[in-house]
């Protein structure tokens, strides 16, 4: 699928107004206003916002091998996949450090969703330390196959190697009043 067909499918599946566009540099740009549904289906602090996985699934209907990185607890009823977390108490499919990913067959996945802790305060909730985002992107880049997509939800654009990854989308995300703004950066593996 090309980027425009992904947008067309997103609109068809979600029925949301057009909020994604192709820029002159052939990237997707837009803004998602998620609304005031504060429910997190997994019930886990910092879990994906309500409606987020539905939107991602609509953008990537052709991707079946999904990995949820920094998973915590994921409601996989909308977008099924394998999970990775450093905390075994969260019962992930793979217990591993996202900065090295030594135990995860990254090459088996064609869509990777990453939602790392945004701050030290968030890490206190998860009982972990801040990750070095560049190390995560390096670990992914060393193992991911060509045309794998990484959907990175964060308040920070992670450092990445331009010989490994290209940015194909930047989508601002607003949840509701008194919530942090976030950005969804979508990378595609190019080498």
Structural write-up:
With 191 residues, the protein is α/β, with parallel strands linked by helices. 20% of the residues lie in helices and 25% in strands. The protein has helices at residues 3-14, 52-59, 120-126, 133-143; strands at 20-22, 28-33, 66-69, 82-85, 94-95, 111-114, 149-154, 165-174, 182-189. A 9-stranded mixed beta sheet has the order 1-2-8-9-7-6-3-4-5, covered by helices on one side. Strand 8 (165-174) and strand 9 form a beta hairpin. Helix 1 (3-14) packs across helix 2 (52-59). The two termini are 19 Å apart.
Q: Could you give a quick summary of the protein structure above?
A:
The chain is an alpha/beta fold. The chain contains four helices and nine strands. The protein has helices spanning 3-14, 52-59, 120-126, 133-143, and strands spanning 20-22, 28-33, 66-69, 82-85, 94-95, 111-114, 149-154, 165-174, 182-189.
Top keywords for this entry?
191 residues; alpha/beta; 9-stranded mixed beta sheet; 9 strands; 25% strand; globular
Strand-helix topology:
Layout: H1 3-14, E1 20-22, E2 28-33, H2 52-59, E3 66-69, E4 82-85, E5 94-95, E6 111-114, H3 120-126, H4 133-143, E7 149-154, E8 165-174, E9 182-189
Parallel strand pairs: 2-8, 3-4, 3-6, 4-5, 6-7
Antiparallel strand pairs: 1-2, 7-9, 8-9
Helix pairs in contact: 1-2
């Amino acid at each position: 699928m090309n980027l425009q067909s992904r947008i067309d499918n997103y609109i068809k599946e979600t029925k949301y107004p057009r909020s994604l566009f192709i820029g002159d540099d052939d990237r997707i740009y837009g803004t998602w206003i998620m609304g005031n549904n504060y429910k997190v289906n997994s019930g886990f602090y910092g879990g994906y916002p309500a409606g987020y996985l539905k939107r991602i699934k609509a953008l990537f209907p052709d991707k079946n091998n999904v990995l949820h990185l920094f998973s915590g607890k994921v409601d996989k009823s909308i977008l099924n996949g394998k999970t990775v977390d450093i905390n075994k108490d969260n019962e992930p499919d793979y217990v591993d450090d996202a900065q090295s990913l030594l135990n995860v067959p990254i090459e088996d996945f064609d869509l990777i969703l990453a939602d790392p802790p945004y701050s030290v305060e968030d890490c206190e909730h998860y009982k972990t330390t801040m990750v070095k985002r560049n190390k995560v992107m390096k670990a992914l880049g060393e193992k991911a196959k060509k045309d794998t997509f990484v959907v990175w939800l964060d308040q920070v654009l992670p450092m990445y190697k331009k010989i490994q990854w290209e940015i194909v989308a930047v989508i601002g995300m607003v949840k509701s009043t008194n919530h942090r703004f976030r950005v969804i950066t979508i990378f595609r593996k190019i080498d």
